[in-house]
Design brief:
The complex is a heterodimer of chains A (141) and B (105). Chain A is an all-beta fold and 141 residues long. Chain A is built from 1 helix and 10 strands. Chain B has helices at residues 21-24, 101-104; strands at 2-8, 13-15, 28-35, 38-41, 48-57, 64-74, 77-84, 90-96. Classes of the chains: A mainly beta (141), B mainly beta (105).
């Protein structure tokens, strides 16, 4: 059983681990600006179903949480114009029970809804976009 | 060895290594979780559920099992006995069957 995270580009689902790190990161972002929005989706083949899907922000790439916001939103459709209106409440301790994990609905039996992710950069804050990290949690049978 | 083990309604022993849960979940009369020899046995002749909670880094194709559970439906609730994969701590959870898993079995 191999979980796959798709990143949505031009309405196509591309396994994120086939992309190079630069392409799968948020790119260059200037202070006080928002990053591009990445759309991702979890797909877990070879299981009966996945349930209780959650997404955690586990590494802010050097940004002190609280000086920036990390957007997270879900939709059942793909729309490149959507900008997240909800935000992570904190950095998860990589625990499935972290209160900062965000619940994610299923799109169907084996996939999550589309997750829209972005972040804002505070002024005078250096960061490494490629090291911003997220973690999925899910139940399967 | 960590796996679910069951006795089907014809008295045969089956386990996770032999059969897909989806094929047998409606045909078993007892269910237990074997956690390296520590066996948790649920009451017989119930309707059962089992599963694992896993994590994966976004972008990784590797999963890590965080915990596994066996459980049963009781009224409108699901009772789960969960074993943490790292610590072997056991917890009991009571959840409302909000997704109506019972009737979708």
């Amino acid at each position: 059983m191999t979980p796959i995270t798709y990143i949505i580009q031009n309405k196509k689902r591309i396994p994120i681990n086939t992309l190079d790190a630069q392409a799968s990161s948020f790119g260059m972002v200037a202070p006080l600006e928002s990053s591009q929005t990445n759309i991702v989706q979890l797909f877990v083949p070879d299981v009966a179903a996945i349930t209780n899907i959650r997404l955690a922000l586990i590494n802010t790439g050097g940004i002190v949480f609280g000086t920036s916001t990390f957007g997270v939103d879900s939709r059942s459709f793909i729309d490149a114009n959507v900008v997240p209106e909800s935000f992570f409440t904190g950095v998860s301790n990589k625990s499935v029970n972290s209160p900062h994990n965000v619940s994610v609905a299923n799109l169907n039996r084996l996939t999550s809804e589309y997750m829209y992710l972005n972040f804002n950069v505070p002024i005078a804050q250096s960061f490494i976009a490629g090291t911003i990290r997220y973690q999925w949690f899910f139940d399967y049978a | 060895m960590k796996r679910w083990e069951a006795i089907d309604k014809e008295g045969r022993y089956i386990n996770e290594d032999d059969l897909n849960w989806e094929l047998v979940k409606d045909k078993i009369q007892s269910l237990q979780l074997n956690n390296n020899g520590q066996v948790i046995t649920l009451p017989s002749n119930m309707e059962y559920i089992q599963g694992k909670t896993a994590s994966a880094m976004l972008g990784s194709d590797q999963i890590q099992v965080e915990s596994r559970y066996v459980g049963l439906f009781l009224g409108n609730n699901i009772i789960k006995v969960r074993v943490d994969e790292k610590t072997n701590n056991i917890s009991i959870e009571v959840e409302s069957d909000t997704n109506n898993l019972h009737n979708s079995k």
